[in-house]
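To the structural biology subgroup,

Please find below the input and predicted structure for Glycosyl hydrolase family 5, which we are adding to the shared reference set this quarter. The sequence is reproduced verbatim from the submission form. If anyone notices a discrepancy with their own records, reply to this email rather than editing the shared folder directly, so we keep one authoritative version.
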Amino acid sequence: MVLALLGGIAGGCGKTSYGETQLEEAKETQQSEDETEAREQPTEQETETQTTTENKGEESMELHVEGRKLCDANGKQIQLRGVSTHGIAWFPDYVNEAAVADLKSWGANVFRIAMYTAEYDGYCTGGDQTRLKSIVDAGVEAATKNEMYVIIDWHVLNDNDPNTYKDQAIAFFDEMSAKYASYDNVIYEICNEPCNGTSWSSIKSYAETVIPVIRKNAPESVIIVGTPNWSQFVNEAAADPITKYDNIMYALHFYAATHKDDLRNTMVAATKAGLPIFVSEYGICDASGNGAIDVDSANQWLSTLDEYGISYVCWNLSNKDESSAILKSSCSKTSGFTTDDLSEEGVWLYNMLQSKK
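Predicted structure (tokenized):
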């Protein structure tokens, strides 16, 4: 049924029966639900008996990993669905509270902040580190104010091996995890896509160096570890997982027009072997991020992810002139998006998230 629904709403290259009115109605519905929730807040006496978070003063959003599953504070499996930024050095204006509120109104419950490490203006290659950290801070606060989860992503790509800038990663995650130690909605992704021959043993060694730095400050936080070959070889992690620490998940990334049954079968096998997988990045186009869109393949992926309760985050919130951007290149807005502002992938994403609210 999910496949049929998604196929119907995603076809037509951006033309959809969901227009600006429906997008505004979704926001109004969310506002109404928020007002109802506010009226139902517990008394001061009741609040004292509830689990709270220092930064939000509300019920715990704490996550933990049980076996292969991501679970909430009550031990119930939870599935996160959301959107990633593009590189925040290049598209910082989308990291704002109103834009994140738009994503929440669509049905997203997680926001990923992608901070490149080695590209132009990368954190470790001449970028303004103070500026980049301030954008990360803005993203964490935007997600927190919208009661969403947030992923701080150390976006390894052109550096290939996360050990290249291991010392900088240690310092960064020490600072971030200390700053957000009381934020139970923050997830740490410590190496986006190790690639070009970087082995699992090398990644694992890096992870076992960085994880204790985070654990010192945020002992219960969930940490996502990238896997070899652009976070595709989860089978290698399944054969030799990190066992020294709890609440560890492993990244799998796919682009639906390129990655099909072979990678999906690899993921299912690793999942059945007990590996906790988190799809921290995916797109419905090809792996270049700018090519043909394959809705049928995307629907097959999501059907499998939903079957196993695996979380997934779509790439990317920007107006870059490429098929993986969810906004049209002509869109100059940084929030208040309507379906007229969305690319083909953006319309698909909006309708998919709406269907799963």
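Summary notes: The chain has one domain: 2-9+65-355. The chain is about 40% helix and 15% strand.

Regards,
Lab coordination
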